[in-house]
Design a protein that fits this description.
Layout: E1 16-18, E2 31-36, E3 45-49, H1 64-82, E4 84-89, E5 94-99, E6 102-107, E7 109-114, E8 117-122, E9 132-133
Parallel strand pairs: 1-6
Antiparallel strand pairs: 2-3, 2-9, 4-5, 5-6, 7-8
Length: 135
């Protein structure tokens, strides 16, 4: 069972539509950071963050290209073993997280300002998954 540094059960299902960065987009600076999930077998993903933590875990937002790479790695590691799947819904322009045949969350795009310019990002798993900040 995955737990955060504070002992929170990270396997607990969440049912919500989550836009995580909207409340921060105009007030905080986003910067690049490397993130990883225990379940993606050492794959690392570059995302943007404000540095906010959720129960001690990172809170990333990813560009579409990185989100697609994340989706492939996540599905390769989780789809067969535990029934979890991340799917891109082109019509809704959102990533949908399925767990054991049920929709658990939607990750819609948002726009953030970075030193690299304005970016369209998806906050996949921010404030609900156990994201490690990579060394």
């Amino acid at each position: 069972m995955a737990r955060s540094p504070n002992g929170v059960d990270c396997n607990k299902p969440y049912h919500f539509t989550y836009n995580t960065v909207t409340k921060y987009a105009n007030t905080m600076n986003f910067y690049k950071e490397r993130f990883e999930l225990e379940s993606t077998e050492d794959a690392k993903f570059t995302g943007y963050t404000t540095g906010n933590l959720w129960n001690g875990w990172g809170t990333p937002s990813f560009t579409f290209r990185t989100a697609m790479r994340l989706m492939k790695a996540f599905n390769a590691s989780n789809k067969e073993s535990c029934g979890d799947e991340l799917v891109y819904d082109k019509k809704g322009d959102q990533f949908v997280y399925w767990s054991q045949g049920e929709v658990y969350s939607y990750f819609k795009p948002e726009y953030i300002d970075t030193k690299d310019g304005r970016k369209k990002v998806y906050s996949i798993g921010a404030y609900c998954w156990c994201w490690f900040i990579s060394e």
